[in-house]
Amino acid sequence: MKLLNVHTHYPSGSHAADEIVNLRPGEYSGVLPRLYSAGLHPWFLREASLESDLEWLHACAPGAVAIGEAGLDKLVNTPADLQMAAFRACITVSEQTGKPLIIHCVKAYEAVIAVKKNLKPVQPWIIHGFDKHPQTAAELLRAGCYLSFGKALFNDRSHAARSLQSVPADRFFLETDDARDLTIEAVYTRAARIRGVTQEEMTTGGVRPDSIFRL
Ligand SMILES: [Zn+2]
Question: Separation of 45 CA from ligand 1 center, angstroms?
Fold first, then answer.
């Protein structure tokens, strides 16, 4: 079975892994990657460009395997109402096109869970770059979310490793995100060690990517 890098900004071109390359408006004006997600990231939102950003999203969505990254970030200056408007627009596109949503969430887990409870989306939601407490992981799992882990697993002081140990095998993905010097193979090896399973079990024993994505 192939490895899956569920979220990367810098595809490696590895034949051993499927890579979902993240795109936002203005990125990759040329040939689109084979597998990509398209979304409106809260860091880059501007009131003046929201309409053209949405046009871009609607144009890219049919060819995407996922929508995102999109979400809420309490540490960025982007106004909260603009973040929420863009997030809800991405949720709508995810539901209309039948594609999972990859979520960027910083200090806004309760808000994301509240939106999910309110809108009751059918599509899977994947919280990417997760590095919070097992308790937060449990709340997100209870709300039906999937989690994705990456570079924080290599930081002994992060909560990511303890959370990864607590997550059922069929509820998480792995990623390299914006780390240029990290391979998805290394993330799988690290995750296998943290969970106390073999590399083989790590690759075959978890969520079946083709049950979530049309790869
Ligand atoms: Zn990212």
Answer: 15
